[in-house]
Amino acid sequence: GAAPYRKGQVLHSVFAAASGILNPKNLLFYLSLFTVVLTSDVGLSFKLALAVWMTLVVFLWDVAIVYFLSTSQVRQKFAKAAYYIDKFTGALLGIMGLAIVRSALTK
User: Buried (b) or exposed (e) across 86-103, using 16+ Cβ within 10 A?
Assistant: First the structure.
């Protein structure tokens, strides 16, 4: 019936939330963003607006990804391209990391 389905939904939601919270990339991204944007001069209303905006944007992005990947046609195309996407993003992140290290060493 509906009870096992709802239990599965709750379990998946808990795992998804834990995945987002425990992801170190999220922590580093938000920490770096907040240290740049949120100075002592920034008021509480701006901080709250930023928190709501960022939460809404991430939520809408996640919903869009789930929606698009739930269609079999998109999922099949993504599966074919996943290897190349992984290699490209890995190289891009590596280049960004090298640029950060270079910047730190030249200062």
Answer: eeeeeeeeeeeeeeeeee
Q: What's the rounded Cα separation, in Å, for the pair 107 and 104? A: 6
pLDDT tens readout for residues 61-71: 888 888 888 88
Burial class (CB in 10 A: 0-12, 13-18, 19+), 9: exposed
In 3-state terms, the chain is what percent helix, strand and coil (to 5)?
A: 90, 0, 10
The distance in angstroms from the start CA to the end CA of the chain is: 63
d(CA 90, CA 85): 8
pLDDT at 23: 80
Say what the pLDDT of residue 90 is.
95
Residue 84 token pair = 């190349």
As a dihedral over the C-alpha atoms of residue 44, residue 30, residue 23, residue 100, rounded to 10 degrees, the angle is: -170
Q: What is the mean pLDDT of the chain?
A: 84
